[in-house]
């Protein structure tokens, strides 16, 4: 092989070597860019997961507060139930005592009637012209009896006061008994109502606890996802570090190979120059002249090559029905998700400030914000306006539901088959009465306030 061919081969080898030195880092750099892009997406997901976790924690805090309110309401209702049961027991004892008194009075009256009968018989036997026995047996009431006895002069003074006292005492006892029995019925109704509310509040607590469990599960899943993303990100970071380390080692290796090739080229060029000088001085001069031209051409080429990146660089750098109704509907919006159902609640400033309402108190409060005074009981609200057909329902109408009793729940219709009210499971909320639970409980009673 001639020297010239050897130089060509050597130079080609050097160029190939240099090409391989710069090719791999370029590929690795692209790999790093791709991985870094993937890491950016993962880190964005991690940040989003963290935000979700924080939101879930806020919801949990809110739910815990609501559960505490519900438990407090349950405790209050338990106390009311115990108090009501005691009042029922005391009232039943009072009624038993009254019954004994009535019985004793009836016995006394019966004895007095026997005495009066005996007097009447004695009066007839002595020749009296008035049948006193018929007077007694023919009277339909004590007052009539007294009036009839008034006609019997012989005994009127002796018996009028007794009969009048008996009638007065019996009327008083009957009145008292009726009052106590009415109170007993009222207490029994309240006991039924409290038990119904207690049952609803327990359902509310169960639902809230269930929601809390779901939130905790979601938080756990989100944390697991975040951890998985962090692990993947750490793995990608380690991969990038490994690639960079490999690039560094390969660059060092190629630099060493390049140095060796350059030294070999210098040795060949030196040997070639010596050989040419010893062969022929004239040829050497011609060769030198040619070499000078070649160098000039080479320098010119180099200068041209040097200008091109500059140009390239330059190119790169250059590239509701009434106002009252509407106010009543919207008044309670501030309590949605921020209230608790409490039987008997909503009737004090403290309850209202803390969003503690039962259904009827909420309706009364909402309409009061609109300048309309309504009673705070479902029974009274059924007569708080005019009855309209459910087919004519308008926003602002009162709607009633048979829950634990007839008309046991009331809310304000907002339109679209929905109503706002203080629900046992949610506190103040907008609920769908077109399907599901409330559709089953809606009894068709609609009252228009305005």
What attributes does this structure have?
single chain, 450 residues, alpha+beta, 6-stranded antiparallel beta sheet, two-stranded parallel ribbon
**Order of SSEs:** HHHHHHEHEHHEEEEEHE
Number of strands: 8
Beta-strand percent range:
5-15%
Termini separation comes to 115 Å
Specify the structural class.
Answer: alpha+beta
Mean pLDDT equals 75
Query: Tell me, what's the shape?
Result: rod-shaped
What fraction, in percent, of the residue positions are helical? Answer: over 70%
Please tell me about this protein's structure:
It is built from 10 helices and 8 strands. It is an alpha+beta fold and 450 residues long. Strands 3-8-4-5-6-7 form a 6-stranded antiparallel β-sheet. Strands 1-2 form a two-stranded parallel sheet. The chain is rod-shaped and about 190 Å long. About 10% of the residues have low confidence.
In short:
With 450 residues, the chain is α+β, with helices and mostly antiparallel strands. It is built from ten helices and eight strands.
List the helices and strands and how they pair.
Layout: H1 3-125, H2 132-138, H3 142-149, H4 156-279, H5 281-317, H6 323-331, E1 340-341, H7 349-353, E2 356-357, H8 359-369, H9 378-381, E3 386-388, E4 398-401, E5 409-415, E6 418-423, E7 427-432, H10 436-441, E8 442-448
Helix pairs in contact: 1-4, 3-4, 4-5, 6-8
């Amino acid at each position: 092989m001639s020297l010239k061919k050897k130089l060509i081969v050597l130079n080609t080898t050097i160029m190939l070597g240099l090409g391989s030195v710069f090719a791999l880092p370029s590929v690795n750099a692209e790999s790093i860019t791709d991985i870094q892009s993937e890491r950016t997406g993962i880190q964005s997901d991690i940040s989003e997961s963290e935000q979700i976790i924080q939101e879930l924690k806020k919801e949990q805090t809110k739910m815990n507060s609501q559960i505490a309110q519900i438990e407090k309401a349950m405790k209050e209702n338990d106390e009311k139930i115990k108090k009501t049961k005691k009042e029922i027991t005391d009232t039943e004892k009072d009624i038993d005592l009254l019954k004994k008194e009535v019985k004793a009075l009836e016995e006394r009256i019966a004895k007095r009637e026997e005495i009066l009968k005996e007097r009447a018989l004695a009066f007839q036997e002595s020749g009296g012209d008035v049948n006193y026995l018929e007077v007694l047996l023919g009277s339909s009431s004590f007052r009539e009896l007294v009036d009839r006895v008034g006609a019997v002069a012989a005994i009127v003074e002796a018996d009028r006061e007794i009969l009048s006292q008996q009638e007065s005492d019996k009327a008083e006892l009957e009145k008292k008994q009726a009052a106590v029995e009415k109170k007993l019925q009222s207490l029994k109704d309240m006991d039924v109502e409290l038990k119904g509310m207690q049952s609803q509040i327990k359902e509310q607590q169960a639902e809230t606890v269930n929601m809390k469990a779901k939130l905790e599960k979601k938080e756990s899943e989100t944390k697991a996802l975040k951890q998985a993303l962090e692990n993947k990100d750490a793995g990608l970071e380690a991969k990038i570090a490994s690639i960079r380390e490999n690039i560094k080692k390969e660059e060092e290796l190629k630099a060493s190979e390049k140095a060796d090739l350059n030294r070999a080229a210098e040795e060949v060029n030196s040997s070639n120059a010596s050989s040419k000088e010893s062969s022929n001085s004239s040829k050497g001069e011609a060769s030198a002249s040619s070499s000078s031209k070649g160098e000039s051409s080479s320098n010119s080429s180099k200068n041209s090559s040097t200008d091109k990146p500059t140009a390239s660089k330059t190119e790169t750098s250059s590239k509701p029905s009434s106002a009252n109704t509407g106010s009543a509907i919207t008044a309670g919006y501030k309590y949605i998700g921020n209230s608790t159902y409490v039987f008997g609640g909503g009737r004090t400033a403290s309850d209202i400030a803390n969003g503690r309402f039962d259904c009827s108190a909420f309706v009364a409060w909402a309409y009061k914000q609109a300048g309309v005074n309504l009673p705070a009981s479902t029974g009274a609200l059924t007569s708080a306006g005019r009855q309209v057909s459910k087919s004519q329902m308008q926003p602002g109408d009162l709607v009633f539901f048979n829950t634990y009793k007839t008309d046991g729940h009331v809310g304000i219709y907002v339109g679209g088959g929905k109503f706002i009210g203080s629900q046992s499971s949610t506190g103040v909320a907008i609920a769908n009465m077109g399907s599901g639970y409330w559709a089953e409980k809606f009894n068709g009673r609609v009252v228009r306030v305005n």
